[in-house]
Amino acid sequence: MSSSSNKTLSIAVFSGKGGVGKSSLSANLGFCLGSAGHPTLLMDCDLGLANLDVLLGVSSDVTIQDLVQQNITAESIVQRIVPNLDLLPAASGVPELVEMDDDQRTLLMQKLQPVIAAYDFLLLDMAAGLNPTLLAMAQATAKRIVVLTPEPTSLTDAYAVIKVLEVKTGTRDFLVLVNQVANREEAKTTFNRLNAAVNKFLGFNLTYLGMVRTDPHMGAAILQQKALMDLTPDSPAAQDISVLAERIQTLRTVLLPELANAPVLKPIAPPS
Amino acid sequence: MPEKPSDMHASQDVDALLAEAEMLGLEFRRAAQLGQGQAQSQANNPGQSQPQTQLQTQPQTQDMAGGDHVVFRFTSGLSPGQLEKLGKQMRLDSWILHPLAADSYALIRRLQRKIDDLSHAAGHDDLTGLARRELFERTLQTEVERAWRGSQTLSLAMLDIDDFKQINDDYGHPHGDQVLQAVAEVLRTHTRLADLGARMGGEEFALLMPSTSQARAAILLQRIMNAIRELRFPAHSSQEESRVTISVGLACYKGYTPPHPEELLEIADQALYEAKHAGKDRLIAAPIKDIAPQASARTLVDTAEKQFLFQTQPN
User: Fold this and answer.
1) Which residues of chain B lie closer than 8 angstroms to A65, CB-CB?
2) Which residues of B173-186 are buried (b: 16+ CB within 10 A; e: fewer)?
3) pLDDT at A28
């Protein structure tokens, strides 16, 4: 619609299973990207049980859910966390809005469009599990990161989400991030297992994005509601996340020509 | 008062009836011939009468043979099928054929069918076969109520043929009628079973789409608009074929606020008006007034509760 070309890379971050560290990773990745000089917007898309605000030590009375009410602009709900890192917070469980319908989503996207263009990165922290919001947003973003841990249940749930997204939306482009691993070998083994299943049963290949080692500093940072990158930048997990952030920046550089002619978030076709 | 087609046939029918019944081997007489004085006037001017045939075994009594009745007496019995066939052959569409000595089931069934036909005709537009405004508004009321009870999205579109007056002026009214019929046909073929298309009057149509979000309704309406854009009408006077476009106003109700059918119609009308003003041949969707549940449904865990959870030290 607008003549100015898009430069924002939108990424949906999701996992099948809950509790795999998805929100902490999103928050810290955002923190890293911001520190590297890229304006980044974190969007809490867990409309049921939102937690990014808690992780980042902020609280807000106006949330994404309010955007679908009248007369509220997206600008008015954006919260500055640190320079170059903003948050679009969600409310914890407005029961009627845990799932938005396609009209509400369309309105939300319309209201977000003018705000998100100002950022280099848009990170969408999705709710765990399978839900219509995930199906819609994972189609809308340019890239998708699947977070899993080496646990068998996490592996199964990650596969399930990938399968549903492929079947329902035709999406075959996934980046895999293995969290809470002992070392690179464990991460590779986990990725290979998932990729082999996707290759065998769904007929395509996943892309390995990287890994984050198990690190007690992460838990400590969460307890203090601070970013790990800020609190203990030299910890193993923080170093791993820095590496991931660099890869994501490279990815954006590579994708820029492709992004230029597409909207930050593609319009979502209602399910037929 | 215009004559109904069946009345126009009546005068020739009375005579034809005698001849045809004779061919069928039936004996019957006019009621007038049973002894009433009006016999002659009725035979001459049957158009004003509401004739009625009766299949009976007893001779007709005098009070039944008043001016409003033409009574035939068949001496041999007829099956319901034969009676129906006879009625059809003799174009007795507006007559009630009552087999006195037979089971009345056939009669009731025929009456029911007739009532169905008539009530359908009353609710539907002659030219296009679509629902009329009255039927549409009644259905709208029901569907708005249903949406409210089930918190379901109801979509309502007003559609208006662009520059229809010009079409009539340029090509004549028969051509205009043809356009109306073609547009109605698109509305019929491009909608789903639960949708209701209606001709609201003139060149204005409406489409009611229950359980349909704005996003889906917009897709459906774009398809309808495309199909109408592709219609071609041969123009008698000129070489080129004429084309038409429509403007559409779309309103949605999500069932979160108490139902107001009139308000929904107004919103759709207003959106249509905007579509016309913005240059026609387009769809304008009005903002949804009740897009989300009312703000009374507040968050489950509020700011104070979150702060208490994290910032208060247990003693």
Assistant:
1) 292, 299
2) eebbebbbebbbbb
3) 95
